[in-house]
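[job 4471] stage=fold_predict status=RUNNING
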Amino acid sequence: MSAPAEHKATRAVPADVAIAVIGLSEGASYDMFDVVALDGAAVKVRGSLLLEISEEVPLRVSRNGSSVDVRARVMGHERGAGGAVTELVLVDGETELRRLLGAS
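[job 4471] inference complete, writing structure tokens
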């Protein structure tokens, strides 16, 4: 039996990882979030933009000059002293993301 999500260990986020929202025109991306945590297919980000729960968002994750495009669904928001944290779950691209981050 697995532990509840709030008790699972989250992986340390490499300092050089960036997440941007991919725009609709010509694949432009917009840096809007700081990565807070990664846990398998779950990503927590902090930013000034609050997305709609259940909304699917195209994201570009970059590290060391390489990037992968993934889609994530907004699962919820947590509010705390540091501002709102958005919880995302990858809809696709998890394998590519693991490669980019150096996980097997």
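[job 4471] summary: The first strand starts at residue 18 and ends at 22.
[job 4471] exit 0
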